[in-house]
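Hello Y.,

Per our agreement to keep a running log of every chain we model this quarter, I'm adding this entry. I've kept the format consistent with earlier entries: sequence first, then predicted structure.
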Amino acid sequence: MDNAVLARSYLPTDLNVHLAANEIDKTIVVQAAASIVETEYMLGIADATPSVAGVVGWINFENPGDLDHLTRLSSHPKFLGVRPMIQDIGDVDWMLRSDVQWGFEAVSDLDLTFDALGFPIHLDNFLTILTRYNKMRVVIDHCMKPQIRDNGEGPHVFQKWADGMSRLADQTSAFCKLSGIVTEANEDWTIDDLRPFASHVLDSFGPERVMWGSDWPVCQLRASYDQWINTAEALIEDLSSNDKAMVFGGTAAKFYRLDE
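Predicted structure for the entry above:
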């Protein structure tokens, strides 16, 4: 990786300063590599770091033998679920393949979480999967990465994304992360560029199914941790204090069952 921001290791000590500055007690670490080794590494960090409340890891959905890994990992008290990196898979219909269905079934049977990472082009297929496995606990990552650059390439592109997200909100029990949208915007983004997307997610899912996510350190491609959290606070400033508390912690605690 030749990006100076991402081509380095980040440790809890790098994050702690941001957590302290923003009075954040707990965080969830989400996989960044298609590797079980990385998942085990993150669980090691979680064991040694009280502020890490849980880990969302990875298994290979194309290898049914990884059921053994998933079952083993599920016994760890801080292992929450998995995130296949669907955004990086060339086959848009990958999640519909018969040979990967065991993975969704296993996540459901083990009562783990599933982080849905994709692009707007995946919206219809995610609706199919989430409807098929309607007991699977799912959170949509990064608002499904709407293409905010250059105004989303036109209002028709925004509407297609918005309609797809509304169907997921109305027809499934999925939650949604208010995260990642700043990295889908132009380098000179403003809060008004993000507002229609954040508003639609909040209106569609409701604060009780929306959780803020830092997407740190990736957010640094467009904004610092503090810039993004301050922007998110401004985006939800019209909500009640209770609803704000849900977006900034309560929803995540409920979805990932952190209180348990």
